[in-house]
Design goal:
The complex is a heterodimer. Chain A is an all-alpha fold. Chain A has seven helices and no strands. The longest helix of chain A has about 30 residues. Chain A starts with a helix and ends with a helix. By secondary structure, chain B is mostly helical. The longest helix of chain B is centred in the C-terminal third of the chain and has 31 residues. Chain B is elongated and about 55 Å long. The termini of chain B are far apart. Classes of the chains: A mainly alpha, B mainly alpha. At the A-B interface, helix 1, helix 2, helix 3, helix 4 and helix 5 of A face helix 1, helix 2, helix 3 and helix 4 of B.
């Protein structure tokens, strides 16, 4: 039963990944990527990592993919005709991917696997204990990283507008507009 | 849990092969497409393949540290996407394109 579930989920995941690469419309790619992420979350459940499955769905399907969709809609790329690479480059890309697959499989085929028969618990409580005791410093560093990323994203999106207004002969952005853009980003 | 997984015939090799296929698909997509947003999605695909393998290792080895690493990778991926998409938006407002063959210069 578990094996069949694994094969079904793997099939869906690989199919979704291939459709991300080969579909012409960026919005279709996003939808198939969401499907792949959901199947990966189901794999996490199969591996008894329920907390990570929930976090995966919230972070990827809930936040990152919405951000992608939002940017595609904002840039109005959903009906844009993308310039395709030449056939030679496409064949080269597929061959490179296949070769990488073969090389990685060959490298990992003979790897020795040690199964330790201890029951790992992927629940929120056990993961939280490890995360907040053993890995407390990286945990805090991640919060700094997220703050830096948020500030950087706001700065990148704001500088352009101020430059554009300067070019039009306007002054610096008024204070009220700045706070508005900050709230918008959050 | 891992013993019950193994009783069902599910071994680590299954997950290794699946992760390799997903990772290679991501690499192929990066080489295949010209739209920078699709390339970002393929990078996410690669990160997820690695995450899946880490969770499989953690489960079969019986160590929670692997799941903690996955947690951190997710946070870094979220930060990366936020900054990358902000850069793309800024570039698009200036150049009206997300084609990487046109975005191949660092400075205009």
């Amino acid at each position: 039963m578990t094996l069949y579930a694994f094969y079904f989920l793997s099939f869906l995941a690989v199919l979704g990944a291939l459709m991300v690469v080969f579909s012409r419309n960026p919005v279709t790619s996003v939808i198939f990527l969401v499907m792949t992420f959901f199947t990966i979350a189901c794999h996490y459940m199969l591996l008894n990592a329920q907390f990570l499955a929930a976090v995966h769905i919230i972070v990827y399907a809930g936040a990152i993919m919405v951000l992608f969709l939002y940017v595609i809609m904002l840039l109005n790329l959903n009906d844009a005709v993308e310039q395709q690479k030449t056939l030679l480059l496409k064949v080269a890309a597929v061959v490179t991917g296949g070769l990488l697959m073969i090389v990685l499989s060959a490298a990992l085929r003979t790897a020795e696997v040690t199964y330790v028969d201890t029951s790992v618990v992927g629940s929120a409580s056990s993961l939280g204990k490890v995360l907040l005791s053993e890995y407390l410093l990286p945990f805090e560093a991640v919060s700094l990283l997220l703050l830096a990323a948020m500030t950087g994203a706001i700065m990148l999106a704001r500088t352009r507008r101020r430059k554009a207004e300067d070019a039009e002969g306007g002054n610096a952005v008024p204070e009220s507009e700045q706070t508005e853009s900050v709230a918008y980003e959050q | 849990m891992n013993s019950s997984l193994m009783q069902n015939g599910l071994v680590l090799e299954h997950y290794v092969v699946l992760s390799i296929v997903l990772f290679a698909t991501g690499v192929m997509g990066v080489l295949f497409r010209r739209n920078a947003i699709i390339i970002f999605m393929c990078i996410e695909l690669m990160l997820n393949a690695v995450n899946l393998l880490l969770v499989a290792f953690a489960t079969f080895y019986g160590d929670s540290a692997g799941q903690v690493f996955v947690f951190f990778i997710m946070a870094v991926a979220a930060a990366e996407v936020a900054v990358g998409l902000a850069i793309l938006t800024a570039l698009y407002s200036k150049l009206k394109t997300t084609d990487i063959d046109i975005l191949s210069k660092l400075k205009w």
